[in-house]
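[step 3/7] fold_predict: job queued, chain A
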Amino acid sequence: MNLISPYHPEIDSIWQAVSATGARSIAVVSALPREGSSQIAVALARRAGQFAAAETLAQPGRPAAARPKALLVDLDLLRPAALRMIGQTSQPDEIVQAEGMNLAVLGNIGPGMAAAWRERARLTEQLAAWRSEWGIVVLDTAPLLTTERRRGPRTTQADRRSSPDSGEIAGITAAAAADVCILVTLAGGTSGTRIREAREKLTAAGANLIGAILNDRDNPSLLAELDRETYRFAKYFPDLMAGLRARMHRSPVLTVRV
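[step 4/7] structure written:
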């Protein structure tokens, strides 16, 4: 799986905004499943880990025990993705080191931990314990809204049973327990009504929502649109259009992945 670079300009902007708040725990939430929150959570956690590594190099005399670290916790029990994204597996409740990423990951939560962390107070206590060992904790959460009203081919059995009674750790619980939260929505896939519903739910729970990310994963890029347009005129100007496509595909601006 292609991971978003922790040094991607947009990830760096998000990280700078989070850092400015002084937050040490971040919940990445979405209104509905498969909106890209897991990829954002992994990228932010990797960015935090790189920041920790850079800070350590800048202070070589700092005791190892005091060096900041980053921890990614996958709290989406029905759709866990963190370990798969970094290409590793683990035993239940085992925290593993992501190779070459300056990042620790808890991505396989056992039933006992899951039952305890469904209570906001217990999860808040656990976050405090994690923060005493890791500098930054990033939570990849379950979707905020139930999907009973959702229809279409993308709905899975896991989505249909995603509800407050499904045994999951509710996304709203994690969002409220964290210092700050970020809402990820899918462009062209999530209605404004559902986004407002998610925002109102976060506000009612007392979550500190500091921003939203519009994921345009399913929308064609500018390069793809321009490329498609050249084929409309290819039968009239084949050499010109072929040359134009070649120049576009070499453009450092048009080929940037956002």
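[step 5/7] annotate
The longest strand covers residues 180-186.
The mean pLDDT is 81.
exit 0
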